[in-house]
Structures are given as structure tokens and as C-alpha cells.
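Reply to dn_fold:

You asked what the input looked like. This is it:
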Amino acid sequence: MTMRTSRRSRWPAAGLEIVASCFIAGLPGLAKAGVPDPPPITEETTQQLFLAVSVNGVRKAGLHPFAQAADGLRADAVLLRQLGLRWPGSEQAEGEIALAGLPGLEVNYDSAGLRLSLVAPVDLLDRPVLRLSSGLASATPADPSTRVAGAVLNYDLYSESRAGGVSASAFGDLRFFGEGAAVWSQSAVAHAASRTGAPALVRLDTQWQVDDAESMTVLRLGDGLTGGQGWTRTKRIGGFHYGRDFGLQPYRTTTPLAAFVGEAVLPSTLELYVNGLRQSTQQVQPGRFQLDAVPPGTGAAVANLLITDINGQQRNVHFDLYGAPTLLQAGLSDWSVDVGFLRKDYGLRSFAYDHRPLASGSYRWGWSNTLTLESHAEATTDLFEAGVGSVWKLGDRAGVLTTSLAASRGDGTSGNQRAVGYQWAGIDFGFAVNSARSSAGYRDAASRLEPALSRGSDSAFVNFGTPVGQWSLGVVRQLLAQSKPAHYLNLGWAADLGRGATLSLNVQRVNDEKKSYSTSLTFSMPLDSRVMTSASVQQRRGSTQLSASASQSPRDETGWSWWAQTATTNGRDPSAQFQVGRLTEAGQWWVGTTANGGSAGTSVYASRNGALAWLAGDLHALRHVEDAIAVVTTDGVPDVPVRLENRLLGRTDARGQIFVPQLNAYQRNQISMDTLDLPMDIVADKVQADVVPERRRASRVRLPLRRIVPVHVSLRNQQGQPLDPGGVVELRMGDSKTGASTRVGYDGLVYLEDPPPGAALFVRGEAGRCTARLPDPLPPAGGEPTPLECKP
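and this is what came back:
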């Protein structure tokens, strides 16, 4: 223990504490000749003190009793525990404890100011580990009371005319939703051509789905995809699906968090940096802490935790991180169950299903923060397949190892499939290797309707950065059941030339054949924020193609776009294509033409996409509504600008409504209105709202506006001079006060909302009191302020 005593006078700050200490301690009263000295401290005597105490820079409320003895300051064990100290045997300790006997405790006693500063090592602080978080947003549940019943039809239309005839195609996705929990949807595709006769309409998917965001589960009846693992094939079925969906809680992090553990002796500021970028700033009190943070997306990263205490002293703690999105947090599970019938000829026939029922189940579980276990099983008539797998993070930053093993029996045969893979990614370097093999008798349920599984594959990928650009190399070897192995090689390079310009090279080769390779070199450069140009040369199978293109993208909300390209092959067969389009609040359309020097000739085409929404008793034409939509109402006030995340979307219609089709489900979407252009007699109680919509549904958002009677008056004294600013103005009818008080502005101006006609204005200012009376009827809104005489 270190003890320091200071006798500097601090009367202005501690006078009351000194007087209180003298009184409570029973020191001799003040004599006429002055204050006598206290008796000397001996081994048999102690002096009672009441001190202001701080522990590790944190001030404790009130005054606390201590005893000054020959061996230094003493305190009752109960008091020391209340101050947040612990030491060996502190739970059973009783009576007075000498501060000098606590190991590592630094005691700073200011006898003049009666202040005691204790600085204890972290081991002496009786505080739990402080849990902090970085990058973890809190979720806000969706409010079912804001649901709006209605329907949405997304559509895509395309038509083309060429020498051979005219063709057209259409895609539609219709969904209905009520005030209940379910959403019903139906999608279909249609196509027709002048040469093929009658048009064709094909049903795609019919679904009835209920999402439960609290439990993160989805119940679906109808068509859809089964669940699965990375080493299985998903199947398209018609039937029943029930399973986990983490997308229902998008703010929840499913991968293991990076934990930064440290300690602070004094109140400190924590700054977390990952790869040199600051992620968060936190304030901590003395003691141990743990900072949980979202790890980087994929691969290795370097984290630094900068700890700065109240004295300005800094410590930098280094951590190694490795992000593995395929891992689950310890104890977290992901699962799905599917029962139904396999779809056949999807996109070609509407109601083609296999007659044999299928049952499938998948399960993933976070065994620990470094190991996730996987399993899958499926069964159909005379066929059963099951397997297990794992995802294992090796150490802090040694990469991720994946394994799987599956076996099947049925159709008179049996077999197995095994796979292993490893990947490592860093800031400027990464690679991955994978290998899979399956025996001749291995089957899954899809094998009866789809091409047979390959007998195996091997792949290796590497990417790295250099001062001259980013490089990538990939090699794939695939073992086919009915032919010799296929080999694929891909080499890529890309360099940033500055000002947005890039140069890229790509080389591909297939099966080691002399003429089975292609090489392309592409240069692209933006001319401004919307116009992009590019030129490329491609060589493949002995021919060389040159091409150049330019395009302009639309603005964020609405605007024109265009795209033009010209190309030639071996100096012959020139071709050109041009299209122009426009993005509007009701969707997007394009028209274009292509001209080919060969036999293809010239064609003209047009396309259109958008949505029709029936909501709140009104039909609106919108852009595609892929997810959630909001019906924003301003209580009947038209022509009000509405923004989504500060982006202008449009203005309310004649009914005071606007549809916002670009919301993210189960996330906070900030919708606001611009009130600067509103008339003077319309005010907003709030100008923005955070809406959390449900998936593929509509929500109502109310931004209330109300109409008022605004009155501007100019208060003047009996000499006709404006009253001084700052005076308090009270509005009264008879003896009762009406409304809140306001103040006189410059030039005697006073603004009132909805005042009663003929009400009295009582003004209290530095010049005294006076009274004015509003006219009856009130003056019309707008125009010059009405002058009123304020009489004493």
C-alpha cells in the first residue's frame, strides 16, 4: 500500500464537510482564543474522521467514517465492502480493517480537505464484468395494428419484333394480405409468338405463408424450395414447409461474436478499430469489461482496442479476428421440415408433380462458437438418404474446415458421398480448396427427376492483391458419370487506374483443348456520376471481337436512361444495339433496337415492369414491390413531400396519401415529410416516423397534420413604438388563462395559434405590464401583422 498525505487548503470546496466532521467527531468547541490542536495519535488512541471518498476516480456519495490510528487510516469491513472493495476473506471480515493491510491499495489522504482517494488494483474491485456491445442494433418488433389489407401485382412485360415474326412474354406475381397473419401469393408466366400459334400460360408457385418474427419461424403451404445444407441439393416441391428463418430478425447476429476482454483501473474511454477503421466508442467504469462486436464479414482481420483513462494515459490492446458467416453461435439452431411432392417440368407445366411423397429435414446447431454441427435426412418411396456435416473454425485466425458424409439406400442400390473443404481469407490474400466424391450407387430424392449427380469434383481458388492490381485464379476438376473428367481454368486480374477507371483481364480454358480458351480485356471509365463508358477485346476459338459501349443510369427517383453498344467480329459482321428507358414512380420501361450484319437482321423490342397495388380503397401504379410497402397518410392534406431515409419519394395525392414501396421488412425505415412548403394554417405534430413493416405486407404510417388559425400581431405602446422583445404574453378569456404563454419577439411581434376572437393579451416585461385585445373576428391568415395597442 502507498499512502500520501496532502495539507493543501481547499476551504472553498470542502468547508461544509470540515465543519460537519468537526461536529460529528466531537472535537473541542471553539474557544475564544482559537481552535486547540487535536491530541497526538498514539498506539492506544484513534481519531474519528468523516471523509469524502473516491474509489479509482469515481466519487462516492456522502461522507464516510474512518479512524486515524498510528498505523494509518482504518475503516469498518462493512464500509469497505459498500465502497466496492474486496480482498481475501472479505466476505467474513468484521470490525475495523487497516487500509495499509490491503495489498496494492494506494491511499491518498487530503487532511485539509478531508478527502480520501483510493486507487485499487482491479483484483480488489468487487464489480461484475461489464458487458458492452458494438455494432449490435436493438430490434423493434413490427406492430400488427398497422396492417393494411390489400393486394399487389408485380409484372414484367416484354415484346420483340423481328423478320421472323412477333413474340411476347409476361410474368406476374400476385399476392393478397389481410389484417391477419397470412399472405397468399400466386405467380405465373405467359408467352406467345406469331409462329407458334396459341399463347401459353404456365402457373409457377402458389403459396400460403405465415411468418412468426418472435420465434423466427415460417409456415408455408404450397409450392417452394426445401431446406438443406451446403452439401445437399434443395428440391422444388408442393406441400408443407416449417422452419427457422433468421431474416425475420435482421438485427440479430447469428454468427459468433468477437469478444474483447480487458480491464480499466480508472474511468476510461474504449475505442474499437478493425482493420484501421473505428467501429465504436464506449465509456467504462473501473473494473473488468467484455466488449462483444460483430466480426468482419469473412476472413481474418486485425482489431485494436484503444483504452484512454481520465488522466489521458493510453493502452493499445491487439486482437486477431476471423469472421466465419457459416458458423452459428453456441446454442443457436437452424432447422426445417418439408413434406410434399416433387415438382416436375417447372416453368413448362402448371400442375406436374411426382406421385411419390417426399419427407425432408435439416438441422444445424452451434455446438460451440468454433464448431457448428449439421445433419440432413430425406425419404421417399423406396429411397432413404441421410448425412452429417460440420463447420469448424481453426484457432483465432487459422481458417475454416468443412466436412460432410452422407449415405443412401434405395432403388436396389446404396452408396455414399463425402466432402471436405478448407478456406482462409485475409485482407489481401485468400484461398479455398474443396474435394467431394460420391459412389456410383449414391442417390437423393431429386435423382429420380433430375440429371444424375457428378461422381466428384475438386477445386482450388486463390486471390491476392499486389501494387499493380487484384489477381484471382481458379481451377476446377469435375468427374462426370458418363464421360471423361472436365477441367476448367480461370485467371483474372483487375486494376484501379484512378478516377473510377478500371482495367481487367480474364482468361478461361476448358478441358485442356487447344481452342477451348477465351481471353478478354476490358477498360471502363465513368464520365460523370451517371454516364459510364467501356471498351473490350475478346478472343475465342480463333476469332476476335471488338466492342464499345456507353450508358447513362437514371437518377435515384425518376429520370431517363440509355444504353448503346457496337461490336465487330474479325473486322466483319458489325452489330449495334441501342435502347432508351425511363424510370418513373409507376415503374420502368425500355424501347430498343438491334442491328446485325449477319443473318439475324434487325429487331425492335420494348419492355415494361412495375406493380399495381390495391390498398386503402385505392388503386396505384408503382414500381416493383419486392418486399414491404407503406401507406403514408397526412390526414387528407395533399401535395406534401414525403421522404424515405431522406430521399424524396414524391408528394401525397388529393386524398393525402402516398404509397412507399421500397421498405425493408422487420427493419426500421424512417419516413418523413417536408413541411417547409406547407401553408401557414397547417402545422405538423411530428414530421417523421420509424415504421417496422412485416414481410411482403402493407403498413399504415400516419404523419398527422392539422389546420389552425394563425394570428400575427404587432404589439405597440401608447406612443406607437413596438414593445421590447422578451416580454411574457398570456392569453385570457375573462378570468381564465387560455393556452400556453408565449413571448414578444422583435418589433413587438407575437405569433398565436387558434386564439379565441376578442381574447385579452396580458404582457409582462421590463417596462411594466400592459393589456391588448384581439379583434373579433380574427384577421385572415397571411399578410402583414395586425398592429395592437397595449395599454397599461
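The helical segments are 11-24, 77-82.
Hope that clears it up.
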